[in-house]
Amino acid sequence: MTILVAIADDAARDRVLEVATELGAGLNRELYIVHLVEQTDANPDARRVREETRDRIGDETVVSTISVEYITHQGNRNATRTAKELLDIAADVDISHIVMGHLPKGVVENITQGNTAFAVVDEATVPVTIVPVGAE
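RESULT FIELD:
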């Protein structure tokens, strides 16, 4: 079984990777690290995130795979599409746990975009670890 680690190009990424590698080492699980992007965003930024992630976890003892995947679900709010994509990956890769970050949003953003972490927690069939920004 594998731990799905959802990362973004944001302030939570390093802490999410830290928590995930500790969890992976403690549970003797491999990590499947995924950075989801819109098809129109498949650009140097996505490659930069992948390379920075590879550099960040390069010395870790936990086995990991890093992937940039494209969001294919259309028609939903951004957070709902992202959550659906993560849950589909979890089903496809035989995931036993999900680790992801959470950046607080304002009321308007929550209403218009939704909240990916909450959407994943609501629908996941495996444990989910949410890493808030600034968690130590």
